[in-house]
Amino acid sequence: MMEKITCSVVVVGGGTAGWLTAGLIAARHKGHVKVTLIESPNVKIIGVGEGTWPTIRTTLKRIGVSETDFLRACDGTFKQGSKFIDWTTGNDTYYHPFMLPKAYDAINLAPYWQAEPQGLSFADAVCYQPAVCAQNLAPKQITTPEYQAVTNYAYHLDAGKFAGFLCDHCIEKLDVSHILADVTQVETDADGYITQLQAAGREPVPGDLFIDCTGFLSLLIGKHYGVPFNSVADRLFIDTALAVQVPYADENAPIASVTKSIAQRAGWIWDVGLTTRRGLGHVYSSRFTSDDEGLADLKTYLGLQGEALTRDDVRKIPINSGYREMTWVKNCAAVGLASGFVEPLEASSIVMAELSAQMIADQLPVNRSAMAVVARRFNETIRYRWERIVDFLKLHYVLSTRNEPFWAANRDPQTIPESLKDLLTLWQSHFPWHDDLDRRDELFPTASFQYVYFGMDGRTDPGPFPVTPDWPAAQGHFRDVARARQAVTGQLPDTRELLKKISQFGFQKV
Amino acid sequence: MVNQVVLNHETHGDLRVATHPSSRFGDNIGMVGIILREYQRLVAHYPIFFRKNAENGRFEPGALLGFSGTENLYLVDERWDAAYVPLHVQRQPFLIAPVGEGHAVTIDIDSPRVSKDSGEALFAEGGRATGYLQKVTSALKELAEGTGAAYAYGAKLAEFELIESVRLDVQFVDHSEVKLEGLYTINADKLQALPGDKLIELRDLGFLQLAYFQLASLSHVAGLVARKNRRISGLK
Predict the structure, then answer these.
(1) B156: distance to nearest CA of chain A, Å?
(2) By C-alpha distance, which of A206, A256, A259 is closest to A81?
(3) A481: Cβ–Cβ under 8 A, 6 or more apart, which residues?
(4) Predicted structure pTM score
(5) In this predicted structure, what is the pLDDT of residue A42?
(6) Do B52 and A506 touch (CB under 8 A)?
(7) Cβ separation B57–A508 shorter than 8 A
(8) Is the minimum CB–CB distance between B161 and chain A shorter than 8 Å?
(9) What number is the ipTM of this complex?
């Protein structure tokens, strides 16, 4: 018997993940795969995710949207990395920039920096981007073409507007069919493959591959297939978010081009600047603080602007960190919150949705034999990625020397994954480097681990092992970074100024 | 420093302006902005490219004069070595600036072109503008009216995705090399393949002929290289 060819993909759920997935698949397979997105008219999208990774630029380009249109429609701003405040001692700052350390493919500068830091932080010694961020400069000029960069960047965006923007584009330009209806029933064949979805008041929606983008509801993977949820709450303690939107103090207030993350007694506050407003949130562990204290700490951080803030102004969102044990079952894959979610530190949510969707689009199985193989790989990869994210986030807590109970509890060895313990043991005597992680396409490369490890006062003692064989080369690179810092900061415009020009003139495509 | 002030015959009645080009006057520029009405005359002498305006990123057409920001190969011993001189060179040291509700002619009073003893007079007896000043004023008006159209032309070609970036990679007789970036041209193949409705739109806007002029003008890059080689060889 001829196997059935995949020619129709049904995405369930119309949030960021749903439209990104529909867009990536439709753009890649336009003309031979029919993409339908069905979403409930009654479910509000979560839409708190406001931070992205530089992969988003490739993603948007693939989907075929203009960067100018995107920035204007989604109140978008630039993100060049993260700035961590008070994480290590309670009175400190470090950057995790998106640009790799200088000459990262050729030389590990960490041992040279540690031997002679010359008064510079690790990030400043090996990368000029922190200086760009510190001055609120944009990552490019108005003459830089769309999606091209002077310094590597991603975006901050209004997630609600982003979903709407992608929706319009997918329908108008990519022929995605859009159905507004509640899914009432999932129908399967004898092998358990989904054949069609019953939709309230509509014709049934048949398909060959179904993507579950129904958020925390996890309608297909969780509810229908009953895939268990693998909680990581024993490692990551954050379980509550209080989110709020505040206007800028004045219309010329600087717009940061990093996500600011400010450590608190039992969690941390995110502070993200869009063009029209700031988006903030306090995430904390309810085991170590109360909602009242959580709100009070948020108000303290906001200062004058927070004085009038009440419980009614903030949105309380429960955070259940973890992921589905399998994210592809039969002919159904999960993308976005339906697949998993960990606390928002390092903004892993949208990038995970992009990577999952891209993997589905790239490897779209032509029939069920291929699908079984792709499913197995997808499950392995996604699971591996979630575990590495947990390791990387936990690293931020483990390295802190803050002594409030929340922070002390985070350092309890019982709560640290074995894989992270191994890395930390290794790095006591071995400078973090490429080979320390397993995969070529790590979500967080060892460069990210270097920025956080040395940013949080982690140190390496190689003992008698020689680790600085080529001082002239290292000094040359340090000089290059210093020179580039002068040149680039002198050349890049203020972020707010550039955003004004984008709204007025836009970027050229070339 | 440039010091533009509104021109009037009471204050500036005795001023004279040197009209010949010279590097002393800041004419050693590698590219000069142009307007569409000049194309027909420019195309006989200069390679025409787009560059991006540094302030707003928009494409603006310009005539390439040299291989660096300060090299003008059309400037030979205080003489302009081409039969047509672009308006933006001719207008120096004057500008039109918004003043109150309207516009006024301004003069860069600190320009080394300006003096009381040599060059063309601006005003005749009774404060009447001289023929020279009338000519400059009409050039300024032409430029003021033509700037918007020049941007519109670039924007339309960009909208139709006909503009591409180029890098000029040139080697001269002494084996020195230059790689010139930041220039944009029209992609001839894409222009040729443009759907009929868009071609007609370009034609109706008057842009189609200009685009072909601009493509044809690129043959002058070879002429520019020859000018540079002559200069390197001491032949002027």
Answers:
(1) 12
(2) A259
(3) A102, A125, A126, A127, A128
(4) 0.93
(5) 87
(6) no
(7) yes
(8) yes
(9) 0.86
